[in-house]
Amino acid sequence: MVDLSALLADLRAESDELDSWVADLPADAWRTPTPAEGWTIAHQIAHLAWTDERSLLAATDPDAFQAEFAEALKSGVDPQRFVDQGAEEGAEREDLLQHWRDKRNALNAALAATPADAKLAWYGPPMSPKSMATARLMETWAHSHDVAGALGVAKPATDRIRHVAHLGVRTRDFAFLVRQKPPPGHPFRVELIGPGGDLWTWGPEDAPDRVTGTALDFCLLVTQRVHRGDTSLVATEGAEEWLGIAQAFAGAPGKGRGKR
Questions:
Q1: Residue 115 located in a structural domain
Q2: DSSP state of 179
Q3: How far apart are CA 49 and CA 147, in angstroms?
Q4: What is the distance between the alpha carbons of residues 21 and 104, in angstroms, rounded to a whole number?
Q5: Both 104 and 30 in a single domain?
Q6: Domain boundaries, position 181
Q7: How many Å apart are CA 72 and CA 83, to the nearest integer?
Q8: Which of 43, 56, 207, 242 could be cross-linked to 39 through a Cys-Cys bond (beta carbons 3.0 to 4.6 Å apart)?
């Protein structure tokens, strides 16, 4: 178990690493395409800022968050389009980088001050402060890979990805349900080698189905930053379907990435 303060410190570290890559970019470089179709570096940062801002609203003014969400639903806008619109509008801001810094820092402080047993409203089920911090770290890590790809930066693998792997395991059933498929009726065993060489495990040792491999491959897969065929993950027949549809993020099924 990781306490909230350690989790928030890891979230800050992920954000600061990405920030360091874009802090001195000239204006035209923000329009550099990333591996995410149709999204530039500006779109990536704008999406993180938009989601941090929505998370901050949920943590500090739940009534306002619910009212905004209800208005969006009433408008009939597709939820994915709602997210994309936030990225498109934010990408045009002249103060985009400072805006992201302000929102992520405010969110970090707000989550640190929130009781551990609180349930924060969200677009899916309510979340605890730790769950929200984990989700923000996962998204920051995933989108930083897109920015790294655009800039030709080698993103270091750190043990912070354990949070991403944990979320990837916990969202197994969601990946099936969002595709109108019945989830497996038994737990899987997941055994991953972390960047430092440690073995990370989830699920019972005697589970009939398992996934093994590197934590980095698993995290890239569950955030849909790599094609299944470009990983070295090994899975039993019963677990293989999951690896083809895994997604650690909320919302509609993602398109994933093509095979290299």
A1: yes
A2: T
A3: 14
A4: 16
A5: yes
A6: 161-245
A7: 11
A8: 43
Q: How confident is the model at residue 253 (pLDDT cuts 50, 70, 90)?
A: confident
CATH number at 64 reads 1.20.120.450
Residue 178, SS3 per DSSP: coil
Q: What is the mean pLDDT of residues 138-149?
A: 98
Alpha-helical runs (H) found in the chain: 4-22, 41-60, 62-75, 79-90, 96-112, 129-151, 161-170, 172-177, 215-222, 237-245
DSSP 8-state assignment for residue 171: T
What pLDDT shows up at residue 69?
Answer: 84
Residue that is last in its domain, among 142, 171, 190: 142
179 and 53 belong to one structural domain: no
Query: What is the rounded distance in angstroms from the CA atom of residue 191 to the CA atom of residue 194?
Result: 10
Task: Compute the C-alpha angle 165/166/172, nearest 5°.
Answer: 90
CATH number at residue 213: 3.30.1050
Pick the more confident residue, 80 or 62. Answer: 62
Three-state secondary-structure class, residue 200: strand
Is 94 in a helix, a strand, or coil? coil
* Same domain flag for 91 and 134: yes
- Structure tokens belonging to residue 217: 């491959």
The answer, as to whether pTM is greater than 0.85, is yes
Asked if pLDDT for residue 1 goes beyond 70, the answer is no
Separation between Cα atoms, residue 113 and residue 107, nearest integer Å: 10
Evaluate whether residue 199 is within a structural domain: yes
**Same domain as 167, residue 214:** yes
* Residue whose structure tokens are 């801002």: 53
Taken in order 79, 80, 82, 83, is the CA torsion positive or negative? positive
